[in-house]
Amino acid sequence: MKYVLASASPRRQELLTQAGFTFDVIPSAIDEKITKDIPSDVVMELAHQKALDVYESKIKDNPAYQGEDCIVIGADTIVSYRGEVLGKPADNEEAFDMLSMLANRTHQVYTGVTFAGCICGQQILHTFYEKTDVTFYPVTKEDLHAYVDSGDSLDKAGAYGIQGAFAIHVKGIEGDYNNVVGLPIARLYHELDSILPKEKIHYAF
Fold first, then answer.
1. With 125 labelled, which of 28, 42, 58, 181 sits at a CA distance of 20 to 30 A?
2. Residue 1, pLDDT score
3. pLDDT digits over 156-166, tens only?
4. What proportions of the chain, in percent to the nearest 5, are helix, strand and coil?
5. DSSP calls for 31-98
6. Is 95 exposed, middle or buried (0-12, 13-18, 19+ CB in 10 A)?
7. pLDDT for 41-65, tens place per residue?
8. pLDDT tier, 145 (very low <50, low <70, confident <90, very high otherwise)
């Protein structure tokens, strides 16, 4: 059994490794297209595109993966506030505006996950999402500028990383912490458990 992560995110790689998975990393290079409006639908659509792209273009006819069961894991994370989808900021100004809007309020983090592959000769295509509510303390403009100027905002949905320096401004969460980091690893395991034969789920431990 082989797993392939269709993402270059070091945070997703770390979560899969901590959970005991061994996997290859083949990031999707697809030009993402969003046709949905609801945040949960957006992340599932993007995760589906990523997983299917890697499976069909890099795995399906690749001799290195022939004769073995394989699952490609695609994932996408967004932040949403009052229905507005917040992706990665384009620059520091947009990052500051995003964080100013989220300060002293509760927002939602959605991660969509898709499994695409072949198990026992059967095609697998399975998608789900997880949602976590995150509440920030009030944050001063000085603290916001200091964080944005650190450069940590630009590669993260919603302009912050909960596992980094901005953690000092997180008042609380309701739901899966790892989902906010970028991959709901416990949900991922249980979704795999629901669709795969038990003996097919291999771990490093």
1. 181
2. 86
3. 999 999 999 99
4. 40, 25, 35
5. -------SHHHHHHHHHHHHHHHHIIIIITT-GGGTTS-EEEEEEEEEEEETTEEE-S-SSHHHHHHH
6. buried
7. 999 999 999 999 999 999 999 998 9
8. very high
Single-letter amino acid code for the residue at 15: L
**Matching residue, tokens 């899969």:** 16
| The amino acid at 42 | V
Q: Token pair of 73, please?
A: 């894991």
pTM of the model: 0.93
Which residues are catalytically annotated? 76
In the chain, count of helices (H) and strands (E)?
A: 6, 7
Segment holding 16, helix H or strand E? helix 10-18
